[in-house]
Amino acid sequence: MEASKFNDRKPVRTKPWSFGLISSEEIGDLEKEYVLRVLQKKRLFRYGGRQDQSEAYALEQMYKERTKVKHGLAVNAGTSALISALIGAGVGPGDEVIIPSYTYIATATAVLIARAVPIIVEVDDSLTMDPQAFEAAITPHTKAVIPVHMRGVPCQMDEILAIADKAGLTVIEDVAQANGGSYKGRALGSLGHAGCLSFQQYKLVTAGEGGMLLTSDDSIYARASIYHDSAFTFWGNDRFARWGTESSVDFDPFPGENYRMSELNAALAMAQSQRIDSLVDRLQRLKGRIVEGIRDIPNIQLQRIPDPAGDVSYSLVFYLPTVAQAQRFSSELQQEGIPNGTIDNNGFADRHIYKNWTYVMNKVAISDKDNPWTNEHYKGHVEYAPDMCPRTLDWLSRAISVSLHQSMTDEDADDLIEAVRKVAAAI
Ligand SMILES: *Cc1c(COP(=O)(O)O)cnc(C)c1O
């Protein structure tokens, strides 16, 4: 790119860019009403009164209906949902769990907390798990796989489910970044054996912190429920009794944590969750307009979206042919008034890229005596290295990413299109 092509340029965008965080931006009267209602009731604990008047219970019912699964378990974080799902599925010492190289570090950590070994595989041009890499990583020790719907983009679930089914693996979807998304008409989180949502601040729906485990598997639900609450069977709730008598589930309690969700968080998540469909609608129209406006540009390659109709659509990603061009493109786009970033090489250790997961790369566990990699039950072997997933690093280092949000106007979208076209033409 010739610097001179931009001499004396007037940026496409002169007024300040419109920033917005999707969920917290929506906090308004409904959230206040729901939270105040909890304070007025003076009931902050889900088992502190009638179960069917609990906010956490109501949130579970809402997500069961939304996603058409049999059970919902409200928890205090997305990480807790993942750990409970893994324990629920019987994952433990000696097991391997396959995860993608591009995901929030907690996906890997959850596997380690369950005392299993994370096996990291490449993502492809969708920036989600490459099904072939997944299949190639299966060993006799593999117990489960965690496809992650990164940045609201649904994974290649047909391929992943078929491979998992053939190998008899449990599929736990990490839906932390894709609440409201779908794959071929089915809600994300309902396609595998379990799905895990997060209500942390940066997700589509927030309660500050919070999470939800979704499953139609009685055994996963029972075990996850026991694990999420050390006193689960003492609260007098009848959650197993209603469906348990004719099922083969083993209800014998075992030690658990305290991952329960508070009534305040549940109320916030309830208020926010009312808006999922209208938010996703708005984001999809916005992203659709932008994609239409830039899809014919030579030399940029749009992120492949396995099912565009199910994309939550708050993230726009495209690739340049080389790393140098991507870095140049990113800074020129910035100078056109459009904030954006490359994903790798951003000048900080991104917690979503495997090579920065130091304690995983170095096989450091909570205790040397209780280390999933050296545990006597683990008969496999895995090596990690920062360059072990070169294709992932290649895609991420050539990617330009722009965050979208619901308050962007059509004018914002059109400025973005014009700026991308202008910078691309100058390359
Ligand atoms: C946020 C996130 C989690 C963890 O959720 P918390 O609520 O922060 O514990 C897990 N996986 C992915 C992909 C995430 O983005």
Could you list some keywords that capture this structure?
427 residues; 7-stranded mixed beta sheet; binds pyridoxal-5'-phosphate
Short description:
By secondary structure, this protein is an alpha/beta fold. The protein is 34% helix and 12% strand.
Structure description:
β4, α6 and β5 form a beta-alpha-beta unit. The strands form three sheets. The protein has a seven-stranded mixed sheet with strand order 1-9-8-5-4-2-3, sandwiched between helices. The protein has a four-stranded antiparallel sheet with strand order 10-11-13-12. The protein has a two-stranded antiparallel sheet with strand order 6-7. It is α/β, with parallel strands linked by helices. It has 14 helices and 13 strands. Helices cover 34% and strands 12% of the residues. α1 packs antiparallel against α9, α3 packs across α7 and α10 runs parallel beside α14. The radius of gyration is 22 Å and the shape is globular. It starts with 28 loop residues before the first helix and ends with a helix. The site of pyridoxal-5'-phosphate (PLP) has 14 residues, from α3 and α4.
**How are the strands ordered across the major sheet?**
1-9-8-5-4-2-3
**Overall mean pLDDT:** 93
Any ligands, ions or cofactors bound here, and which? pyridoxal-5'-phosphate
Q: Encode the helix/strand succession as letters.
A: HHEHEHEHEHEEEEEHHHHEEHEHHEH
Total count of strands: 13
Kindly provide the radius of gyration, computed on alpha-carbon positions and rounded to a whole number of angstroms. 22 Å
Task: Compute the number of helices.
Answer: 14
Structural class: alpha/beta
Determine the strand fraction and express it as a percent band: 5-15%
Q: Characterize the overall form.
A: globular
Amino-to-carboxy terminus distance: 5 Å
* Biggest sheet statistics: 7 strands, mixed
Helix content estimate: 25-40%
Query: Which ranges are low-confidence, i.e. pLDDT below 50, for 5 or more consecutive residues?
Result: 243-248
